[in-house]
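User: Fold both of these, please.

Assistant: Here is the first one.
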Amino acid sequence: MKQYLAIDIGASSGRHIVGRAENGKFVTEEVYRFPNGNKSQGGHLIWDTEELLSHVKKGIAEAVKKCGRIDSFSIDTWAVDYVLMHGDKEIFPCYAYRDGRTERAIAEVHGTVPFETLYEKTGIQFQPFNTVYQLYADKLSGRLNEADGFLMLPEYLLYKLTGKRSCEYTNATSTGLVNAKTHAFDADIVSALGLPERLFEKRISQPGKTVGPLKAEIAAEVGCDMTAVLCATHDTASAVLAAPVACDFSSPYISSGTWSLLGVEQERAHTDADSMRENFSNEGGPRFTFRWQKNIMGLWILQSARRELGLDFAAAEALARANVCGALVDCNDEIFLAPESMCAAVREKAGDLTDGQLLYCIYASLADCYKRALRAMEEKLGKKFGTLNVIGGGSRDKLLNELTARAAGVKVMAGPAEATALGNLMVQMIAGGEIKDIGEGREMIGNTFPLRTFE
């Protein structure tokens, strides 16, 4: 019986989950979990890639120790961040997307290629940390002078384990440099911005492609040889693969974690002015599909406030339930991206709230953002949504699910919570010949993980 390892790394934690297909269902076991977060260095926020790689290897070794032979593995992370390369050497640091280094770059990029043109070509919404702005900031600082390539973070970790470079489609689209029609890096944008063409010579691959075996020394270190496979390396793309309800290009989802990604799968990108005005994104999915979605600041706001108040999840929810109030904030306001005090940022926008009211305000504001995004999608597509599949860690949040169902007037179907790891495993199982296609994989997930309903 084949066994697969999903390494799912989020901005706040990572986990290693071993899975196999058995009697038409997924059987999974979490074998390793580790904390993650930005580090401060020289006034910037960075990722400690050496520490990440160490945890990745420790988790692989733990998977082998607990479960025996692993046939293949794959890695997914958040999007947009990358490591610059010069030959086989890294050009550090690996900046974190919450770092504020792109302000000048954004103005210069849009002065050269108007955002309307970027959106028409790529379909990627404006966010100040999009890879296109980060790379341009690297150009301004001179960091690109020696670079001959760059690897998105999951592909960088795979490279360190296998020695093979790759460029996976779903994550490549998050750069804001991939043409939505040709599915390749847009040469006109690259040229206009003066980015070195040598950075974009990699062939973009679809999920399911084999990367290669572990390096011999890595295999010896972890106790087993295994093959690396490209999953949908952008974690949201993997998560949406595991959404049981999102199977007919008409049922919306929320991938609910540090970010809330609310959208619907589409067979083509919407790159028109209305979609741009609503700041919807068209992120690539397997088989050149698109996730037409709105990126909402998400549970980051709630997580930050909880930490600041010293409350665990249950205590924060209970306090919010006991302090219902009518205050709302725009969760997409950039003030919430990386404030010194999240509570102070919320109070600046919502007024003088008690701690309980502040927490309820965050919950209600997230639900309100979801409602507004759904209404804009309904208007654009000319249809009314009846259900909303909430996947990821936020699917466990009863209060948020209740408020979302009430605000949006939809039936909320919650689960699975570990959607990203399941989507990662699904692609490996398809590549391994154990699952026919995505539809069969979603059916298996629905049979394995019953959904909870909120109306």
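And the second sequence with its predicted structure:
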Amino acid sequence: MIKVGITGAIGSGKTTVCNIWKRLGAAIFFADDEAKKLMVTDEKVRGMLINTFGSETFIDNHTLNKPYLIHEAFTKGRVAELNAIVHPAVGAAFELFCRDSENKGVDVAVKEAALLLNNGRPQNLDFVVIVESVRKIRLNRVMNRDNIDEKKFFERDENQPHFESLHHLADEILINNGSLAELEVKSKKLFQKLLKINLKN
């Protein structure tokens, strides 16, 4: 089985690529969704969050107090502390996901994460893809998808990595400035490439 990492800026189309690959038989692990889940369901993670950010991190001990945690982590510049708690748990969950997928006969396991390359290239990945789109196209996609204004988009976009500076860490840069049909063709072609790499391993 080949382990693939995919990342890209907000509105680049990385989730769409993952959904196309899923239809072709890939197992997809959405790291951001898993992180949100683990913050609530994993006792160790919950305990560390409370010890680090205080009991206000949770409402009634079961519901994540998102506005509070966002304020504590992002407004107060404590994102590194949050990542140090959550990222190892997400990494362990991905390894378990890969083992389960391989046991089911899956050839391609994919980890989708916005911050995939923030600390360099993960050693446990065989292939890394960055999905790129020009900012104006991403802006229009996200405004239509999330029903937000330009200001909100730029706030989110500025908090993301500058992916152009991370190109050297990727095996493939998938350009997505065209139609969905064009992206489908490119995604299928790249998936066939991944299957061939898997056969060689």
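The chain has two domains: 1-26+108-201, 33-106.
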